[in-house]
Amino acid sequence: MNTDITISDIQSAAERIKGIAHRTPVFTSHTFDALAGTNVFFKCENFQRGGAFKIRGAANFVYSIPKDELSRGVVSYSSGNHAQAVAIAAASVGIPATIVMPADAPKSKLDATRGYGAKVVTYDRMLGNRETIGRKIAEETGATLVPPYDHPWIIAGQGTAALELLEEVPDLDTLIVCIGGGGLISGCALAAKALRPGIRVFGVEPADANDTYLSLRSGSRVEIPMPLTIADGLRSTKPGELTFSIIQKNVSDTVLVSDREIRETTRFLLTRMKMLVEPSGAVPATALFHHKLPAGLGKTGAIVSGGNVDLEFFQTIWD
C-alpha cells in the first residue's frame, strides 16, 4: 500500500465522508485569549458525530474497503472514540462490526459503542494486547481490521479536521493538536503544511503518556509502560510507525501537560466557554492555558478532539 499521503488524499477523504461527518464549528473566547496570551480558534470536534474526530478516519477507511470484502464486516480496537466511530461507519453501510475495548474504558463509551450496533469484546489493558486480539478475530471471521491511527486511510480522514479549520481561518500561524497514536496530528499536520507551508504545528501529550515526546528526542520510536493518565484516549505506549515518520517531518515540537492542568482547563472550558470536553480533547487547550508553548504563536488553531466523558469525571475537576 502507498503510504505517501497528499493534500489530494485528504481532500478526497473530505468528499468521501461528507455525508456522515459533521462540519464542526470553530469557537473563540476573549477570556481564554487573554489568559493564554494569544488568539485561539477552537475546532470543536466534541460536536462531531459520535462525539469525537474519529468518525473522519473510520468512515474514510470503511468507505475505502473494496466492495467484495466489505460484506465480511470490520473489526477494530479502541479505548472508546474510535470504537464508536467504526460502529457508526459500519452501521451506515450495513455491515457487522466487532470492537475490542479495555474493560476499564469509560462506561459511556462502552455503552455508546454497543448502542451503535457493534459487538464489544473486552480485555484487561494491563495484561492483554488489543492488537493481537483484534488480528485473531479478523483472521477467524474474515473481517477487515480497521486500525485506530497507523494507516494512510485513517490519517487522511483525520486530516480533514485541519482542512476545514483552515478553510474557515486560512491565516493561522500555529496549529496545536493532541497526540495519542498520532493519527490526528499526522493528518492535520500534512493538511496544514500543504495549505499554509509556514505554519508551525505543535503536539501535546499528557506527562504520563509521553511516548511521542521521548521518541522525538531519541530519534526513534520509544515504548513506555501503560500510562495511567486521565486522558484515556491518549494512553498509547508507542507511536505508530507511519505516524511517527510524519510527525518527525512536520511537527515543530511536542510539550507535556499534567493531569492537574488538564482538570483545571476542562473546568474552564465547561464553566466559561460552556463546552463539554473530555480530558484528551482538552489537552491542546491545556498547553495554551498553562503557557507550555513558545511565545509568539500568533493566530492559533487548537483541535478539541472530543467530548465523550463519564459524568463521574466531573466530580474530580472541582478539587
Task: Explain this structure.
- The structure is a single chain.
- This protein is an alpha/beta fold.
- Helix content is 42%, strand content 14%.
- The chain contains 14 helices and 10 strands.
- The protein has helices at 7-17, 30-36, 54-62, 67-70, 81-92, 107-115, 130-141, 152-158, 160-168, 183-195, 211-218, 241-250, 259-271, 279-289, and strands spanning 26-27, 40-44, 74-77, 97-102, 119-123, 144-145, 174-178, 200-206, 253-257, 300-304.
- Helix 10 (183-195) links the parallel strand 7 and strand 8 (200-206).
- Helix 5 (81-92) runs parallel beside helix 6.
- The N and C termini lie far apart (49 Å).
- The mean pLDDT is 94.
Topology:
Layout: H1 7-17, E1 26-27, H2 30-36, E2 40-44, H3 54-62, H4 67-70, E3 74-77, H5 81-92, E4 97-102, H6 107-115, E5 119-123, H7 130-141, E6 144-145, H8 152-158, H9 160-168, E7 174-178, H10 183-195, E8 200-206, H11 211-218, H12 241-250, E9 253-257, H13 259-271, H14 279-289, E10 300-304
Parallel strand pairs: 2-10, 3-4, 3-6, 4-5, 7-8, 7-10, 8-9
Antiparallel strand pairs: 1-2
Helix pairs in contact: 1-3, 1-8, 3-5, 3-8, 5-6, 8-10, 9-10, 10-12, 13-14
